[in-house]
Design goal:
Layout: E1 2-6, H1 14-21, E2 25-30, E3 60-62, H2 64-76, H3 81-101, E4 113-117, H4 122-130, E5 134-138, H5 144-156, E6 161-162, H6 169-181, E7 184-187, H7 190-198, E8 206-208, E9 236-241, H8 250-259, E10 265-270, E11 275-276, H9 279-282, E12 287-291, H10 295-304, E13 307-310, H11 320-326, E14 331-334, E15 347-350, H12 355-367, H13 369-377, H14 387-398
Parallel strand pairs: 1-2, 1-4, 2-3, 4-5, 5-7, 7-8, 9-10, 9-13, 10-12, 13-14, 14-15
Antiparallel strand pairs: 6-11
Helix pairs in contact: 1-14, 3-4, 4-6, 8-12
Length: about 400
């Protein structure tokens, strides 16, 4: 039986959902659980999406009131950025260990399997190992290698104003301890595995398990209609959806948009803006800024766009690729993320996320709308990225 410990709504709760379907989820413990209609969803703490209907009947332990108390105290103390992240990770682990120690979380059998996400797992794993339990760590990103890539990108583009800072030393020290305590370390892509190996992570512990995604049951199939040719009145609509920051390749994407400013292409930038581009890029007439949207509202952008672009410099996987494909949307993606795009089948793979490579890919799409239509027809998620495959692979990993 599995115990899952999850801070936040990462991956739409895919792991506990997959394990619950296989009837091996003993408990999901998470910071907040807010069913539809709860007044907590209206509070300014982003709790509206802390629920999934697939887990309505699942055994879930959450600490809603304690989380609100923590967040209010953090605001009073003016905690932000890394101090807030570290404090929140520590708070969550203390809640879990306290509940495990007092048997508030039910444990069937003498050797449950504990699943937790990186950077908020060390203390939980210490408790587990002291009791002889098996531990599975899900590594959410490519670790220190990614941080160095992002640091370099900020040095190259100082004109992009950003609050990004490298993680404090204690963050990586805690992470190293998690790696030692983990029996297995799950990464979501070959790129993430390569990056961890560069950081000296034990190769024998690593296992690649891609993310899983299933569209909501009430989602209707999307059919994308492409014109015979794109014009200024009907431009190629290019969707970027995610965190608007340098790690996601935004500087390079906006440079490509500037180079294509006289073409029949329109860029939709959807997501929280975590950097401030220079004025000449921020005011490009072929770029539209939409800001943060809810998960439910994001679906409409996937339906209305012609192609999704992910020029990321580093991602553990990037779930947005699967969301786009689930809506029949072709994808242009970097090599440095999950291997979902089959080049020239359901999209285009960027060998390097440079402005020139992005321009070349988009010009191909602009000139070949019939090929875009074919990419869209081939846009399917497939069994490899299903919840059933995720559950089976996890169970086989821990056997």
């Amino acid at each position: 039986m599995w115990l899952c410990f999850q801070l936040g709504a990462r991956e739409h709760y895919a792991v506990p959902r997959a394990l619950f379907r296989r009837r091996v989820l003993e408990q999901l413990a998470t910071d907040a659980w807010v069913p539809p209609g709860s007044p907590l969803a209206a509070l300014p703490f982003g709790l509206g999406e802390r629920f999934h209907p697939d887990l309505t009947a699942a055994p879930v332990q959450a600490w809603n009131s304690h989380l609100l108390a923590f967040e209010l105290a953090a605001r009073f103390r003016r905690l932000s950025d890394w101090p807030l992240i570290l404090a929140r990770n520590d708070w969550f682990q203390r809640k879990v260990v306290t509940c495990l120690s007092s048997s508030q979380l039910s444990v069937v059998g003498s050797r449950p399997i504990l699943f937790a996400y990186s950077y908020a797992a060390r203390d939980i794993f210490r408790f587990a190992k002291a009791h002889g339990w098996k531990t599975v760590l899900s590594q959410i990103d490519p670790g220190p290698v990614e941080e160095e890539i992002v640091r370099t990108e900020h040095e190259i583009h100082p004109e992009f104003v950003s609050d990004w800072r490298p993680a404090p030393v204690e963050y990586w020290q805690t992470w190293r301890q998690e790696l030692e305590l983990a029996d297995k370390i799950v990464v979501n892509s070959d790129w993430a595995r390569t990056a961890l190996e560069r950081s000296g992570v034990n190769q024998q512990k690593l296992a690649i398990i891609p993310l899983a995604y299933e569209p909501p049951a009430d989602d209707s199939p999307t059919t994308h209609e492409y014109p015979d040719r794109f014009t200024l009145e009907r431009p190629l609509r290019v969707l970027f959806l995610g965190q608007v920051n340098l790690r996601k390749g935004v500087a390079r994407l906006l440079e490509a948009a500037q180079a294509l400013r006289n073409e029949s292409i329109e860029f939709w930038m959807v997501g929280p803006r975590q950097c401030r581009p220079p004025e000449q890029l921020r005011r490009l007439k072929n770029v539209r800024w939409f800001g943060r949207v809810t998960q439910a509202n994001a679906a409409q952008y996937y339906r209305d766009a012609d192609i999704f672009i992910l020029p990321t410099l580093s991602d553990g996987f990037a779930l947005t690729q699967l969301e786009a494909q689930a809506h029949g949307l072709p994808v242009i993606a970097s090599r440095r993320c999950g291997e979902m795009v089959r080049d020239s089948i359901n999209g285009i793979v960027l060998e390097e996320s440079t402005p020139d490579a992005i321009v070349e890919a988009l010009q191909f799409c602009l000139r070949n709308p019939d090929q875009l239509a074919q990419f869209s027809e081939n846009a399917t998620i497939g069994e490899r990225f299903s919840l059933s495959c995720l559950g089976a692979t996890l169970c086989a990993l821990a056997a």
